[in-house]
Amino acid sequence: MKNNKKPVIAYLHTHWDPEWYRTSDSFNVRLVKITDEILNLLSSGKIPFFYFDGQVYALLNYLKFRPEKEKVIKKLIKEKKLFIGPFFASVDSFLISGASLVKNLEIGLKISKKFKEDNFIGYLSDTFGHSKSIFEVLKHFKIQNAIIWRGVSVLPSDFIANGIKTTRLVWGYYHDVFHSNLSIEKKSEIIEKTLDKINEKSGNILLLPIGGDHLGVIENVFEQIEKINLKLKNYEIILSNPFEYLNCADFSKENYEGEFLDNSETYILSGVYSARTPEKAENSRLEWNLFNRAQVFDYFMKGKYERELEAATIELIKNHAHDSIYGCSLDFVHSQVRQRQNSVNELTKTVLGYLIKDFKKENLFVENNDYIGVFNFSNHVQSGALKVVTDKKLKNAQKIGEFFGVSDEISYNLNQNPMTEDFHKFYEYLIEVDPISPFSFKNFKLKPIKKEVVVGCDFIENKFLKLYVLNSKIYLFDKKTNTLYSDFIELLSTPDGGDSYNFAPLDYPKTLKIKSSKVKTNGKIKSSLEIKFEENIKLVFSLTNKSEFFEIEADFVNKKKNRKLQVSFNTKSLIYKTLAKNPIGTIEREHDPDYLLFENMPPKKREELKTNSYPMQKYVLANGVGIITEGLNEYEIYKNSIRICLLRSVGIISNPKNSARKVPAGPPIECPHMQCLGHNHFRFALAFNENLEGVAQNFCNPFLGILGEFKAKNKTFILNKKGKEFIGISDKKPLFF
Prior knowledge:
Elements: E1 6-12, H1 24-44, E2 50-51, H2 57-65, H3 70-78, E3 82-83, H4 98-114, E4 122-124, H5 132-140, E5 145-148, E6 158-161, E7 164-168, H6 184-199, E8 206-210, H7 221-231, E9 235-240, H8 242-248, E10 255-256, H9 277-300, H10 306-318, H11 322-326, H12 331-363, E11 364-366, E12 371-376, E13 382-390, E14 398-405, H13 408-411, E15 424-436, E16 440-445, E17 454-456, E18 459-461, E19 465-470, E20 473-478, E21 483-485, E22 489-495, E23 510-512, E24 514-522, E25 526-533, E26 538-544, E27 549-558, E28 563-570, E29 577-581, E30 586-590, E31 613-615, E32 619-622, E33 625-629, E34 634-638, E35 641-649, E36 678-687, H14 692-700, E37 703-707, E38 709-710, E39 714-716, E40 726-730, E41 733-736
Parallel strand pairs: 1-8, 1-9, 2-3, 4-5, 5-7, 6-10
Antiparallel strand pairs: 6-7, 11-38, 12-16, 12-37, 13-15, 14-15, 16-39, 17-18, 18-19, 19-20, 20-21, 22-23, 22-28, 24-25, 25-26, 26-27, 27-36, 28-35, 29-30, 29-32, 31-34, 32-33, 33-36, 34-35, 40-41
Helix pairs in contact: 1-2, 4-5, 4-10, 6-7, 9-10, 9-12, 10-12
């Protein structure tokens, strides 16, 4: 190397958010023009390599408009000039399930390999921190390297993270100085300073990305680098690719286990955990129905609907590109997100309907509404209440609703048209389910019900739990441990001056007062107590006869803008540790129970203030109190309380006056729909159980019931792998971690 200058491996790239401050349609027009130029520069030899952001979604969008370019792309990939994959879409690793992570990578790899790509990096240049789970998924697919940025603090540039050789982009992925109109002298000065900062964490070689969000490649980049190299004092830039860097890097100096959520050096923008909560809740429901019900049922039925379910999966993971699932995009973008969610819901629901019809055709012994066949799609023994729909009146069941419709026998019959057939009355029932082994089918006769839940105007209880209202406060008694939780549950409302990226409280939380309570349902199997708070916010607490957890529904019409609404559970002592569900496995976190964001505002320098808010998947556990949620992904710790965010109403992508963050994180585009005005409905649960995984799966609904007597009375269709977490069906087989 000339003059003993330190080598810098630079790579050309573009970071492609499929949708953000513009729609995917708008960005796709730009994508076509940029990709045309990249392919021309690669083909002519004017640039040696190009790295396409670790995903294939952008490439597929390009080929919709330029299908004739597929041969050129395959040729450039074969020549190791263009690098694509491994993900389908650039992926968040906190707000989506483990099955979504696996399917994103599995489908992305399948598409990449069709283009003859065989070099892969777990490329995560802009996601807002990194869960431990993403490294587990990379290992599963035998990807040995990752490139990350946000959430890392004191670590060197190259290290082992959770068993994966990992490189951090010390100064980020966004380096667009080559695109500027500055003089070579000024560009050289900026680059020298940047490389000095990267060098502080680096070994004998440095890594420099050249590019940024939705940027093309400068045609004269070779010429610029030659001139800049003459000006640099300590470095020499070599235009290559990230694989060349990874081959030279030394990963032996540090071994790290855990997640990356440190915001002391880079923003992690934790407000995205709670932006557009209704979409996150719907995503959680869709993931469970698609991966833990439809795909498992289809596996039992020998894979009859693999292609339909893969189509649903692709539509779902299009929503998991980080700006989409984060909620920090245009309102119109999120109307498209909801449309994709509707498509996934319809595909999944229809496949389940045909699977039930096919199963009955192959296995039904006799129609008999005194019997029911039940699938348990969980890897835990499960019992509880199951909802079934029938046009017959049932004994030994609790009716919970009725409606007019067409029977599934007609709807899924290829020789009948449901639009012209008989509409008549249907009934929704709850049925008690005896314990069923993991991944099993069981056929049994409906038994007489022994009612065990007692409910009154201000209390509800069964043999395990009792909740009551006294002097406008909520108390809970855990009968198993003889423990009373006083003033246990509160609703908190905090004015929010933040944006989609960061919560910025403008005051201390206000506790909403309880206005009334009443019996909502008094049933043979399930009963409910409704507690009404200020602003007509209702929390409905439900117990079934044998349940050891409360199911809670929040139902309200939101009329408030710019505020955060939380439900707070006050445990019996200060909270120093939590155990939260990750997409795969759990993560233990330590907390300062005295830290409150409002008391530390504003930031004193170019920083993002730390918070006591963290992401979770299905549940969080602290001081023996477990909260299980359906897509409520953010919890906060303060003093002795676990605070679950029900809704954060804000109206702007990035507020330049956000008092929790010094520098804007995106454009200041107003998004009125992000305020989530109107009707909102969320589900969560409360349990006092150190092993929450089985409870969480019960809460998500692991059952599918079909009335009738069947040939098989008991059948296990997947062997339970004890100690392993079930993720979903992958590569046509059950996947456990």
